[in-house]
Amino acid sequence: MPAYILFVNEKVLMQLLKGFFIGTSEDEAVLSFLLADFWLLFLVQCFSSSTKLFLCTCGPTLLFVKISQGKEEGRRFYACSACRDRKDCNFFQWENEKVSEARLLARKEVNRNCRPSLSHRQNMERYKEFVLLPLSKRKFCQECQKLLLPMEWDKHSDHQVLHDLSVAHLQRPSQLLCPLENKKTNAQYLFADRSCQFLLDLIIALGFRRVLCVGTPRLHELIRLKASQEQESDVKSLLLDIDFRYSQFYTEEEFCHYNMFNHYFFGGEAAHEICRKFLHQEKGEGVILVTDPPFGGLVEPLAFSFKKLIAAWREVQGEDHSSKDLPIFWIFPYFFESRILEFFPGFSMMDYQVDYDNHALYKHGRTGRKQSPVRIFTNISPSMIVLPVEEGYRFCSVCQRYVSSGNQHCDICNSCTSKDGRRWNHCFLCKKCVKPSWIHCNTCNRCALPGHTCDRAKTSCFICDEAGHKRSTCPNLSVAERACQADRKRRLKKNKIKMDNVKRPSVKHATFPRKKIKKKKNTLAC
């Protein structure tokens, strides 16, 4: 399986990207949290038959390789699939590391202690008791993020507690629960009502009757709210999300605890079967997958998980429909377009700007460079997706799709080329349209921001350390594969040396006692 770049040294990557496809301080802020402290890392593989499975608190880990600049050899290791901060999940293990029994036991103990104190079914039993309480006795602890039964009030007497929870409150749990905004773990940004209502209206207009909501809790609750208010509404939804707090409000048939970075159902085969049945209803017809992953998420493991869901949906498709694809709305920033198209070539990007309630930048109504960069990627024909004309979107008769007001058709490119909502200009030297703030640089032989450093064009490639090209055009972009091969050769050579030592005749050597090193406390890293 080919490998792909995940993280680069922050200063190096910002130098590579600034003026390339970012170009604004807002976009730099968006990407700044994607970067690690040092090293160039590659994702070796998600899950194959030869991959060992090591579990952390977020399910199966992923295999990475760590490579220094200009070096081919790398060292592979396992780390958490969802958390990029060791403070949130400190699992780390070299690929061929021999783990002691004590460390394995400590790791199992940590995983066991991180499990929720109550199961999904127990939370549902508590919810049934809670809704039977009179309005004055319905309380929610904001600090513990849980519904409180009368016998638990004393334990939460010094906490901030919401009182008099109505049925309307319980139907909108995303407004009760505090968003998990850790950019290196959850990055839980919630759709604004405008975007959420547009998505639901679009889904209904396209004729879908079931929605698999992967990481979109606000869309899930809006669908359920509409179904409870309108008897004629026949749209159903199933929420797959890593936030287990939603198990307090939804049954096992409505919510599955799920990690989209490794396709892991925390509820085991029973939860997996619920998802499968939901996809298989009506022989797989009338269902769409809508996903809004964290923007710091790695595209390759996400694509791996979505392809697993597509494979599960295809189980009920006959041979005549084996070429059909599960309809998908993937909501992600526009500057990840090339990465998404790498795994889903049939996808296209819509111009609709998705905004969020709890994000400082991604708001509706901004203009210029301050517009939301979040778009909808889909495998549905763009001509079928109608964008709201009242918000300035218009239909391009040449491209046969709706575009933003600033996205003017370029007769030379024969396309509406803008990605960020502004009108782009055509560069005849680059033979493509570029951002309006860019100018052509004869030294770099490309368009870039004014005042950029032209020395970048003369520097060596970050991957192969050779001059004359950049990382994006490096012929050795698959260096991770060679790094893995070099790593295997090094291990084979090491094993051969060990075998040679065994074959040699035994010779007595003088022995010296090793100096004992005092072990620090809590050395059992998990």
Topology of this protein?
Layout lengths: L3 E2 L4 H8 L7 H8 L7 E6 L9 E2 L2 E2 L1 E6 L6 E6 L12 E3 L6 H13 L6 H13 L6 E3 L4 E3 L12 E2 L4 H4 L2 H4 L16 H13 L4 E5 L2 H13 L6 E6 L13 E5 L4 E2 L2 H13 L6 E5 L7 H16 L13 E6 L3 H7 L4 E2 L24 E5 L15 E3 L4 E3 L5 E2 L4 E2 L8 E3 L4 E3 L4 E3 L4 E3 L30 H25 L23
Parallel strand pairs: 11-12, 11-15, 12-13, 15-16
Antiparallel strand pairs: 1-2, 2-5, 3-4, 5-6, 6-7, 8-9, 8-10, 13-14, 16-18, 17-18, 19-20, 21-22, 23-24, 25-26
Helix pairs in contact: 7-8
What key attributes describe this structure?
single chain, 526 residues, 8-stranded mixed beta sheet, 26 strands, 26% helix, globular
Would you kindly provide a written description of the structure presented here, covering whatever features stand out?
The chain is α+β, with helices and mostly antiparallel strands. The protein has helices at 10-17, 25-32, 101-113, 120-132, 167-170, 173-176, 193-205, 217-229, 268-280, 299-314, 337-343, 479-503, and strands at 4-5, 40-45, 55-56, 59-60, 62-67, 74-79, 92-94, 139-141, 146-148, 161-162, 210-214, 236-241, 255-259, 264-265, 287-291, 328-333, 348-349, 374-378, 394-396, 401-403, 409-410, 415-416, 425-427, 432-434, 439-441, 446-448. It has an 8-stranded mixed β-sheet with strand order 14-13-12-11-15-16-18-17, with helices on both faces. The chain is globular, with a radius of gyration of 26 Å. Mean pLDDT is 77; it is low at 1-40 and 502-526.
